[in-house]
Design goal:
- By secondary structure, the chain is an alpha/beta fold.
- It has 13 helices and 13 strands.
- α8 packs across α12 and α10 packs across α11.
- The longest helix has 22 residues.
- The relative contact order is 0.10.
Length: 370
């Protein structure tokens, strides 16, 4: 199965447009017969939600002989039992089926695409149909637009969210992911460490009371844990290109960068946290960060500065998000970003506030220390 987070796959997405343009001069693509057959296949594909992944092969000589009034022939092909029941069909100039095969040639899309490309070198044009009204084709050994060639990979990719759904993805992360003890435990000091800290501090509290009083203590330098957990979640559930620590020209580093599938629009996420961490030696309490000034004004101004810096570099910044993980002991009314306003910004930065978004705090609660 294809690895959607693999660097080569992300590169493949970006190169599809280039490959299509590169082979646009392919003579077959400009013929009336090819354009009409492609259009009619697309029309029938839109009416056939049951199609997962299917290939149609036709010889280049037969393509040249296709009649101009092939509308009914294409409809007949799509309604034919042999076409419906099989993954691969070979047709002639009258769109009659010459051969069928229902085997899955490969379970990996990369291998399947390679096989289709090789097969198209032998005077064949191979149309690859996929659910969702997607059509690609192979001509003279060249892949024109295919990213997937197996039903499993297509289904997995379809379940992933687009960059337009980023707000909902962040809500799902809040409501479904960080409420699971298997996920939030990684942020906090372990039960063993808390017991050891109780002894190191020679606390007057009983061990159980000390653990209860300090269960919200997060690991040293927890921002990396928060960032990496969110990063991994986004990479798992999104089609977009998601990367971490994008470095700007002045050595500022953006925590999480999210690009759309074409690599054109940019969203980014700056991660902050509030609460108390353990000291790096593990024998005493470490740092405590509060919303003021950690989030407002510092995080607020930093995020908007990044929007400006990216824009100055000619990046198309859609939105810059400020995400705050709230690991404080007590529940506090309101959001850590409350109280911000544009008066805190220097004049050159004010116009970029419209691209700023403060995500409602991610409240992380260590309900079950372990």
């Amino acid at each position: 199965m294809i690895d959607f987070d693999n660097a080569s796959f992300r590169s493949e997405i970006l190169s599809v447009k280039e490959r299509i343009e590169q082979f646009a001069a392919e003579p077959i693509l400009a013929t009336f017969q090819f354009k009409l057959l492609r259009s009619l296949i697309m029309s029938e594909l839109a009416k056939s939600p049951d199609v997962d992944v299917k290939s149609i092969s036709i010889g280049t000589d037969d393509l040249a002989k296709l009649p101009s009034d092939m509308d009914e022939l294409v409809k007949r092909l799509f309604s034919c039992d042999e076409f419906i029941k099989n993954r691969h069909v070979v047709i002639d100039a009258q769109l009659k089926i010459l051969a069928v095969n229902n085997e899955e040639f490969a379970t990996d899309s990369s291998l399947a695409i390679q096989m289709y490309s090789e097969a198209s070198k032998d005077g064949k044009i191979i149309f690859l149909l996929a659910r969702g009204n997607e059509l690609s084709y192979f001509i003279n050994g060249h892949n024109h637009g295919a990213l997937f060639a197996t039903a499993d990979d297509l289904a997995l990719y379809k379940r992933k969210k687009t960059v337009d759904e980023l707000d909902q993805v962040l809500e799902d992360y809040r409501n479904l992911h960080i409420t699971d003890s298997n996920n939030y435990q990684k942020f906090f000091v372990s039960l063993t460490e808390l017991r050891s800290l109780h002894k190191d501090l020679q606390s007057d509290l009983s061990e159980s009371d000390f653990i209860d009083a300090n269960k919200q203590l997060v690991k040293n330098k927890p921002e990396a844990y928060f960032r990496d957990d969110l990063l991994g979640y986004l990479q798992d559930v999104m089609r977009a290109r998601v990367s971490k620590e994008y470095t700007l020209n002045n050595d500022d580093s953006i925590d999480i960068l999210v690009q759309d599938e074409a690599g054109l629009g940019i969203y980014f996420i700056e991660v902050k946290w509030v609460g108390t961490s353990i000291h790096h030696l593990g024998k005493k309490i470490g740092s405590t960060f509060n919303p003021n000034p950690k989030v407002v004004p510092e995080g607020y101004k930093q995020t908007i500065r990044y929007i400006k810096e990216l824009s100055d570099l000619s990046y198309h910044v859609k939105l810059g998000y400020l995400v705050v993980f709230d690991a404080r002991k007590e529940d506090v009314a309101g959001d850590s970003g409350d109280g911000r306003n544009s008066d805190m910004l220097d004049e050159p930065y004010k116009k970029y506030e419209r691209q700023f978004r403060k995500v409602a705090d991610f409240r992380v609660i260590n309900k079950k220390p372990r």
